[in-house]
Design goal:
By secondary structure, this protein is an alpha/beta fold. Helix content is 32%, strand content 19%. The protein is built from 5 helices and 5 strands; from the N terminus they run βαβααββαβα. Strands 3-2-1-4-5 form a 5-stranded parallel beta sheet, with helices on both faces. β4, α4 and β5 form a beta-alpha-beta unit. The longest helix is centred in the middle third of the chain and has 14 residues. The protein starts with a strand and ends in a 16-residue tail after the last helix.
Amino acid sequence: MKFRKVVVGGTFDYLHNGHLAIISRAYEIGERVTIGICSDEMQQLLMKDSAGIQPLPIRLWRLLNELHNRGWLGRTELNVLSDPYGTAVSDRNIDAIVVSPETRARAEEINRIRISKGLNPLEIVEIPFVLAEDGKPISSIRIRYGEIDVHGKKLNQSRI
């Protein structure tokens, strides 16, 4: 393990292989992992298409269940996010943040805020998108629209 403490954040709606890749990477490189999960209120503010996002208790249960199944709960700090940054902008013990190409800009913004507060910037660990079998990134919105499942398998859409 390279870092004492790593942070990741997201909605974790329809916990899918892309989410699991980011979370897995965080546990590979960090002794402890802080996971920020968006509150229902934050989702309404941040998402253009927030309709259909699962309520926080469902998203939280699925995330905790996955962490338990993988034996990671003992290394986890969990925060419900009421803003896009959470403890990433204030916790001086965090060393790194794991992101996808889609969320890298937010990590760079977090580093600017940390520097303005006199904190060290986080090392940004970017992982590539996890692709569905159709070659496009797996995303919660694609799952919600019935294009793919949580593993990126294309779903048959019959038209009547």
